[in-house]
Amino acid sequence: MAGLSYDKKMKKWLVRFNWTNPTKKDRNGNLKREHKDYYGHVGETKTQAKARKARLEQEFNDGLIIPGDNVTVNAVYKKWQNANKVRQLAPMTLKGYDSLMRHHVIPVIGNMKISEIKSEHIETIKERSQSFRFDGKKGLPSPTTGARAYACLRTFLNYAVDKKYIRFSPCNGVRPPREAEFEIRVMLEEEVAIFLEKIKVSAYYEALFLAFHTGLRRSEVLALRVRDINVDLLELMVYRSVVVVDGEYHVGRVRKNKKMNQGIRKINLDPTTGIFMRHYLERKQEHRRVNGFPLLSPDDLLFTNYKGEYINPDLYSEDFRKVIKGTTLEGLRLHELRHNHASWMLELTGNIKLVQERLGHHSPAFTAERYVKKLDHQDKVGAEKFSNLMQEFHKKHTQEQAVEGVSESSD
Description:
Number of strands: 8
Strand order of the largest sheet: 1-2-3
Structural class: alpha+beta
Strand content: 5-15%
Helix content: 40-55%
Shape: extended
Distance between the termini: 104 Å
């Protein structure tokens, strides 16, 4: 890797590192060969030069110096992106990393040498992500944005450490920002009726109805096929999810844990939902027959746009926001239909394992901590039951005391 030679003109010993630059190519498309020189001082002996060469090689192996220590953050980021694609990370994960890096990290340190990144640069990125928005909306960004930007940067720098671009991650000296407490909004009883009435005018009424009654994710609902639902057995199988990244649809298997095959699951439908979906399929089939289209096949999408193609997830969410606008539900996020379903299922069954499997989470603990929050009226009912129980204990104790008093007086 390193060679030692004497420069007669400069009268200095030279240690030269040669390497193949993975970020550059020559005219023939081959990776470019580069080198970096480390000169000693005038008067340095060969023995001293050999010792310096050994020290530099050790520093190279430890990551203190690197091949092409002029490699920028941008260059390493491109390699990290490619590595993530090879690892087959979920499309939405890749999209999230790209957005966070482009908006919060690259503008600050993108053109810097990655070997020169210090803790103060990380602090600057952290403060910037907590002060500026990049979505055009007013106000400060959510604390969650800053926490995610920091987590993304830390993951990126850990990759740089693994690949020997740097020895230590500068994030080690920076306290991570506090993420906002995860909160959900649970509909009131009267709001449920408003919701079910308002979504009737939606272009995606049936998809919203099914999501509300099953707790499916947006990506899962829009990836369902006709074969996945059995209205006779009241069963729904969840195999796939669909997301859009840069205008391209990505459909993949639902797997939160590849070894345990979690995410792929069977969901039991209630009779009302079963009848609703049966009528939907009958109307869809009749529409095809009347208009001379091919009849539904098991591989056809359950929900489609007017072209018979995948519904754009963003349009689906935008339509949901429009139909609840002007009601007490305004501001409710589409994903919170899933939180509501989880909360009510837990209240009705008291079985966290059942709710976890229905939602396709990797563990009951995650379901309880992240999605299923305590309802206010549950807390009140629990407090009332506790109070009634304590009163019963007190009443029983008083009666026992009275009986003992009568016994002692009769004696």
